[in-house]
Amino acid sequence: MTTKAHWQKVWGVVKQVTSGFAEDCVLIGGVAVYLHTKEAARPEIPVEFTQDADMYIGQHAWPDLRDAYVVVPNRRLSKHQITVGDVEVDLYIEHHNKLRVEYADLALAAVVIEGIRVAALEHLLLLKLAALADRGSSPHGQKDRRDVAKILVLLNDTPPHYLLAQGGDDDVDLLDVVLKSSAFLEIPDDNAHAATRLRKQATTFVTKLKKARL
């Protein structure tokens, strides 16, 4: 579990990096889920700190970012990494990654939270589903399930658009797995009543998605 002290370091690094590339950097991953959850301010969906940060970087900013930081490529995972202190930041560069969402789509729909550009919920959901498919049986996968569950709850009043266009049968199957998982009980700290309410809200979005796919 990430401590609050380490999270404060992560958040400081996020603000430092994004301040230099505000127009060409969009937060994804756990930090993005944290910000959406904090913005929603729902007591039954507490924020969850993350160990590191993930950013999607536009091609235009890539040369300047390499000048500003020591960037290490991770070709196996089609990403790059920088380390600031003891905080790791994963960088996904436009046209040089295998993410399921194109940078242009992500940047166009990004929202600003606390002065930083953050992936929109549906884009974040598709990215999180891909992460969950890759590491569902690991401790990271357990957090991915909680993240997906939170996003579904926050999307419950929203008609599906991007997931409808870009998602597939495997994504719908994985959403069903999340709906049946213990994630909804873990989020409100084993409060069964709150878990039932959260699961019902999450199911609303998935049901709308399935009907739209018919």
Question: How would you portray this structure in words?
Answer:
With 214 residues, the protein is an alpha+beta fold. It folds into two domains: 1-119, 2-Layer Sandwich (Beta Polymerase, domain 2), CATH 3.30.460; 121-214, no CATH class. Helices cover 54% and strands 14% of the residues. The chain is built from ten helices and seven strands. The chain has helices at 4-20, 29-40, 62-68, 103-109, 121-135, 139-154, 162-166, 169-179, 183-186, 192-213; strands at 25-28, 53-57, 72-74, 79-84, 87-93, 111-113, 116-118. A five-stranded mixed β-sheet has the order 1-2-5-4-3. The protein is globular and about 50 Å long. The N and C termini lie far apart (41 Å). The mean pLDDT is 95.
**Top CATH class of the largest domain:** Alpha Beta
How far apart the termini lie comes to 41 Å
According to CATH, the fold-level topology of the largest domain is Beta Polymerase, domain 2
What CATH architecture label of the largest domain applies? Answer: 2-Layer Sandwich
Secondary structural class = alpha+beta
**Any idea what the shape is?**
globular
The portion of residues assigned to helices is: 40-55%
Mean pLDDT, all residues:
95
Name a few traits of the molecule.
214 residues, alpha+beta, Beta Polymerase, domain 2, two-stranded antiparallel sheet
Write the SSE topology.
Blueprint: H1 4-20, E1 25-28, H2 29-40, E2 53-57, H3 62-68, E3 72-74, E4 79-84, E5 87-93, H4 103-109, E6 111-113, E7 116-118, H5 121-135, H6 139-154, H7 162-166, H8 169-179, H9 183-186, H10 192-213
Parallel strand pairs: 2-5
Antiparallel strand pairs: 1-2, 3-4, 4-5, 6-7
